[in-house]
Design a protein that fits this description.
Length: 213
Amino acid sequence: MNTLNSEAFVLFGQHILWSDMVGNLFGLAALALGWRRSIWTWPVQFLAGLILFGAFFGHLTGSAGKQAVVMVVALYGWWQWRRGQGQDEDGHIAVRFATWRERAAMAAAAAAGTVAVALLFTAYPTLSWDPWPDAYIFVGTVVAMYAQARGMVEFWFAWLLVDLVGVPLNFANGYAFSGFVYVIYGALVLWGMRDWWLRSRQAARPTLEGAPA
């Protein structure tokens, strides 16, 4: 693991670690696979979490804990998408907008979770250098992955909100490659959001009797 945490190269004055680079490249691939609604998004996300867990463990315990939770949610997502395969005409899962009740529940869980985790990080300073933004990213990531596991278009909106804090926080903590990747995440999120949005509208459109398929 020491080799994995060694410096790969320097980019624009930022020291890029192998673990940071490899883990985030897997995370980027997982997001792209999620856009395509491929079930392989979850094993790749699990592997990304495992690598980043090794990168953070020992000095950014809060971030390492986030990756442990990411791996658990990735297993949940794999299970959900295995159950949902074949729902759409192309053999993949069907996507949809969340109901207002589901949106309210996720927003409430995100708010309460962020406060609870931030207070934990504040009480134990060794868990995080930046308790509130780190808690926001921690909980936001879990909420986004949960929405993805349920095939909700809101998954993409949640990722955008995480990106807004994730980019500056990663640069500030010396994880430059994570910061660069989060910028690319933003572009992928916008494309993926458009694709899922259109698919959800198409799935919700009623088919008129006698109309051509």
